[in-house]
Design goal:
Blueprint lengths: L1 H10 L6 H17 L3 H16 L5 H16 L3 H17 L3 H17 L3 H17 L3 H17 L3 H8 L2 H8 L2 H17 L3 H15 L5 H17 L3 H22 L1
Helix pairs in contact: 1-2, 2-3, 2-4, 3-4, 4-5, 5-6, 6-7, 7-8, 8-9, 8-10, 8-11, 9-11, 11-12, 11-13, 12-13, 13-14
Length: 260
């Protein structure tokens, strides 16, 4: 932080150095964000924004807007984040930055999801997926497809969610990381259970269990034990259901203590 302050002091208020000043503020804000000081990060970004806004659109301005929206998301100011992402999307479109547009569409979809605007979330995610496919980025397209399936599940459209997610099982080894491979199976298990397809759900949970064991993905393990308890209960295996629920409760306590 001190180095950025020193640079800003040397630049001063000379108008010809405004863009350089904005760059220092952008990177200073990023440093504050990485230290967890979201308030100071926000102040830096808001100070830099008018400078970039007064100049022709640039990649740096789009980067600033992205960082600003991330801070708003961290502060749970989702409507502000949505507004900033929409501005960023317009700039990236003007700059013909297709990859940047795809990333921003994903972020817009996530923000709409936080706001419970799931239809809008689905629309932006599908646009992002199509754009990634046109760019030949299969890995990112698959990751977005997983998000599409999650949104469909949240909308209660279980069969559509399953149809969106099942094709990922064929290509996941090359296109999804371990976390997403586990999340895929857990979501499929939940969707199948929602349709009372318990044998199919059990198959997905068994595979998820084998993938989960060597990991430290506590949140995914929490979901796994929660689903397992429900499945055991439906199958009449109440002792196993009780054991799974105990493990679920322990993980909830662990995750809660970490957030304090």
């Amino acid at each position: 932080i001190a180095h950025f302050d020193e640079g800003l002091s040397l630049i001063g208020d000379a108008p010809q150095w405004d863009v350089l000043k904005a760059g220092f503020l952008l990177n200073k804000g990023l440093a504050y964000y990485q230290y967890g000081d979201w308030g100071q990060a926000l102040a830096c970004y808001l100070q830099a924004a008018p400078i970039y806004q007064a100049a022709p659109p640039t990649v740096e301005y789009a980067r600033l807007l992205n960082n600003l929206a991330i801070v708003y998301r961290s502060l749970q100011r989702y409507e502000d984040a949505r507004r900033i992402y929409q501005t960023s999307l317009s700039i990236k479109n003007e700059l013909r930055d297709s990859l940047g547009m795809a990333r921003t569409l994903v972020n817009l979809g996530l923000v709409h999801g936080y706001l419970k605007e799931r239809e809008a979330a689905l629309q932006h995610l599908q646009q992002a997926k199509e754009l990634y496919e046109r760019l030949g980025n299969a890995a990112e397209a698959s990751s977005v497809q997983l998000s599409v399936g999650n949104v469909l599940y949240e909308l209660g459209e279980l069969q559509r969610a399953i149809q969106a997610l099942q094709p990922l099982l064929k290509t996941e080894a090359h296109e999804l990381n371990t976390h997403d491979r586990i999340a895929l199976r857990l979501r499929l298990a939940a969707a199948e259970m929602g349709q009372e397809q318990y044998i199919k759900a059990e198959k997905y949970l068994r595979t998820a269990d084998s993938l989960l064991k060597p990991t430290t993905f506590l949140e995914l393990k929490r979901v796994f034990f929660q689903l397992s308890a429900k499945l055991y209960e439906q199958q009449g295996e109440y002792q196993q259901a009780w054991l799974a629920m105990n493990q679920y409760t322990e993980l909830v306590d662990t995750l809660t203590s970490r957030e304090r």
